[in-house]
Amino acid sequence: MPIRQGSIDGLCGVYSVMNATEAVIGKFHYDRKLGRKASQRKVLFKKLIGYLDKHDKLEEALIWGFENIDAKGGFIDIAIKSVKKYQKRKLRKGIAFNMDGVTLDAYWEKLTEHLSQPESAAIICLSGRIKHWTCVRRITP
Known about the structure:
The chain has helices at residues 12-25, 40-54, 58-64, 75-87, 104-115; strands at 122-127, 131-136. The protein is mostly helical. The termini are far apart. It has a two-stranded antiparallel sheet with strand order 1-2. It has one domain. It has five helices and two strands, in the order H-H-H-H-H-E-E.
């Protein structure tokens, strides 16, 4: 059986930020300023990987994944700056709960409320047997 992409790397945090960004602004556009055929998608990927490398987190992230996506000044801010620079669009971020002990009902209500708004996405972490960051765009009954 072949190895599935993503089954041995821990880059779900990178992809969750990229997917959330694209869910909110739509497909990334080609940027003529780059002077070569490169999509904003690849530019953002390079910036996120570069951030991990600069902070000596690349090897750990590749092997073990992310403890957090560094929402306070890290990955999400990189995406916000990249979209502003290359797409001339503004993204907003927010942390739904900045505390432990939130009930599942409160979490679900907040997530449902947020995702009912246009051009919205949420980055969540599923934990248990494994830890996985993912982008949520909608909730269906």
